[in-house]
Amino acid sequence: MVNCSFCGKKIERGSGKMVVKNSGKIFYFCSSKCEKNLLKLKRAPKKLS
Description:
Blueprint: E1 2-3, E2 10-11, E3 17-20, E4 26-29, H1 32-40
Antiparallel strand pairs: 1-2, 3-4
C-alpha cells in the first residue's frame, strides 16, 4: 500500500493512479480530485492533525 501524494490517504493495491513527471518524480493519487488539485491547480497539500 502507498499513500496519496496530496491527501495522505492509503491507496489499496490495484486502485488509484500513478503519475511520473519528466523530472522523474513519482506521484500517487487516490482520486482525480487529488490529482487535479496538485497538478492542474498547483495547490499545496495541507497536513491536517
